[in-house]
TrEMBL record:
Pfam family, one: GCD14
Biased composition (Basic residues): 82-94
Function of the protein: Catalytic subunit of tRNA (adenine-N(1)-)-methyltransferase, which catalyzes the formation of N(1)-methyladenine at position 58 (m1A58) in initiator methionyl-tRNA.
Enzyme class at the top of the EC tree: transferase
Annotated EC: 2.1.1.220
Protein name: tRNA (adenine(58)-N(1))-methyltransferase catalytic subunit TRM61
Subunit-structure text: Heterotetramer; composed of two copies of TRM6 and two copies of TRM61.
Cellular component, GO, one term: nucleus
Length: 524
């Protein structure tokens, strides 16, 4: 049973100590941090634990207890050796000796505590002081924020891909998901949130005494030992134990059973270099040798009983993620042989659009990003006359016209900006243009989707026929009833009439009546 709730599932309204939070510096630059009230790693800052960034330093004490999304100003932290305590000194003793008066007070560094080898100045006990510039935003841990900030051990699956994949493999609360390989755990976190429907032990707590809630789970596999260990540790730190179970295994060799038991998977995601080697293990019954491709470790040995890792009562949805088309071809070939249907390949390409107004004209001054070409003939003429006037004055009078640079008003000063916003309404000026941003982080791979239907035995067929009576479609157009009366459907009637007409035209009188088109019919 998990001992704590995961901040990925319940982040609460504010940041808190000993919980993961994401320090957002700018788009695509985020730092994951477990907030600490005290510097347990003894990094030596007088302010306690500190996050140092290119936008300034942020003592953890200034980040704890803030509503998610808060903007936090950098603090003045001496990150040089003089601002540091000596590593390994008895912190407890120091704290006892100089208990801060408020949450923003930092402990005092006494003269005699300083290392004689470091040029140290005495630090007065002081509050954490805001720096003049630099800020960050504090964000809650979500799979999306984790994907953009996690320590990369491998190439990862990014949000645009995994949101689509999870939707296509029908991952939802209560789903059993198989994932291999786990790599850096980007997909693992997203799939854990998708499958979560309660912590182990809470199955019966949905108000129903008779029907137990089905708890979703991610059955993750990774064969690289260090990656497996690191992800295992992250899953513990993030409170996802019991929702994610990671097994250290080569799935192409050992398959997907865990402790000999079937995960009963309904959704599968394979991010492996050779997914076709793992596919024979993902069958409902022992696969035939001919369907297993080149893998000698396929489960074709019939001396041991075959246990399927799949849920026998539902169709199973799979996605494989491969960067090369040759991998896709081999995967699809094996999928077909193993009975997967509805096979489809998709490539996602995400684009971000930048939309803005394009304004042209010298009158725009030096505003950033604007084109300083004349907007009209009048503007061009006025500018030419100005330049020529200066030129003429110089040659006729020898006067050097003083540069009026100094007199120029900064076009970005507050008054100018207000004037352009309120009076000129510059936001309405210009042509509305859009362009795609050149690069968006997604790992382009081919996604292969397929479905494995539930097995359909002769017994299932018999039971189904018993339960739902099947009315066979009558192919014959003409039925002869007990009394010898001929009944026809509309099509047969038309056909008979046409034939009768033909026969009449040929001088042959139709049998059974004067009118060759008269045929006894019944509407069907
Ligand atoms: C591209 S990474 C997966 C990244 C992961 N999907 C993520 O979002 O972070 C591929 C991983 O598969 C693992 N792997 C490769 N072959 C494997 C196998 N046969 N069994 C288990 N893991 C395997 C590799 O060690 C690697 O960590």
């Amino acid at each position: 049973m998990a001992s704590k709730t995961s901040p990925f599932l319940f982040s609460g309204p504010v940041s808190s100590a000993d919980k993961l939070s994401i320090v957002h510096l700018k788009r695509d630059l985020q730092i994951p941090t477990i907030l600490k009230e005290h510097d347990e790693d003894d990094e030596g800052y007088t302010e306690g634990k500190v996050v140092n960034t290119r936008f300034g330093s942020f003592p953890h004490t200034t980040l704890i207890g803030l509503p998610w999304g808060s903007q936090v100003r950098a603090s003045k932290v001496d990150t040089g050796s003089r601002g540091r305590r000596v590593k390994g000194q008895d912190k407890k003793r120091k704290r006892e000796e100089s208990v801060p008066e408020g949450p923003n007070k930092t402990p005092k560094l006494e003269d005699d505590e300083a290392d004689a080898s470091t040029p140290t100045t005495t630090k007065e006990e002081s509050e954490v002081v805001a720096a003049s510039s630099g800020f960050i935003h504090l964000l809650p841990p979500t799979p999306e924020n984790w994907t953009s900030s996690l320590p990369h051990r491998t190439q990862v699956v990014y949000t645009p891909d995994y949101s689509y994949i999870l939707h296509r493999i029908r991952a939802r609360p209560g789903t059993q998901i198989i994932e291999a390989g786990a790599g850096s755990g980007s997909f693992t976190h997203a799939s854990a949130r998708a499958a979560f429907s309660g912590y182990p032990g809470s199955e019966g707590t949905n108000g129903s005494a008779t029907k137990k809630r089905k708890l979703g789970k991610v059955w993750s596999f990774e064969f690289h030992e260090q990656r497996h260990e690191k992800l295992q540790k992250e899953i513990q730190d993030h409170g996802l134990e019991g929702i994610v179970q990671i097994t250290h295994r080569d799935v192409c060799e050992g398959g997907f059973l865990v402790d000999g038991q079937s995960p009963g998977a309904e959704s599968i995601f394979l991010d492996l270099p050779a997914p076709w080697l793992a596919l024979p293990h993902l069958s409902r019954s022992r696969p035939p040798k001919s369907a297993c491709g080149s893998n000698p470790a396929s489960p074709t040995d019939d001396t041991t009983p075959f246990i399927s890792p799949l849920n026998p009562t539902t169709p199973v949805h799979i996605c494989t993620f491969s960067p090369c088309i040759e991998q896709v071809q081999r995967t699809i070939s094996v999928l077909r042989k193993l009975g997967w249907v509805d096979i489809q390949m998709v490539e996602l390409s995400q684009k971000r659009f930048e939309i803005r107004r394009e304004r042209i004209g010298i009158a725009n001054g030096t505003e950033r990003g604007l084109q300083l070409t004349p907007a009209s003939v009048d503007e061009a003429l006025a500018r030419l006359m100005e330049v020529e006037g200066t030129f003429k004055a110089f040659h006729e009078n020898g006067e050097k016209v003083e540069s009026n640079k100094k007199d120029k008003v900064n076009p970005n000063n507050r008054e100018k900006i207000m004037e352009s916003l309120v009076e000129r309404k510059v936001y309405k000026e210009g042509r509305l243009v859009h362009r795609t941003e050149p690069e968006v982080k997604t790992h382009t791979s081919y996604l292969v989707f397929a479905i494995l239907p539930i097995e359909w035995s002769e017994e299932d067929e018999r039971k189904a026929r018993e339960k739902w009576e099947v009315e066979m479609r009558v192919e014959d157009e003409v039925k002869v009833e007990d009394g010898g009366e001929v009944k026809m459907n509309k099509k047969a009637r038309k056909k008979a009439a046409a034939e009768a007409r033909k026969a009449a035209a040929a001088g042959v009188k139709a049998e059974g009546g004067d009118d060759p088109t008269e045929v006894k019919v019944e509407e069907t």
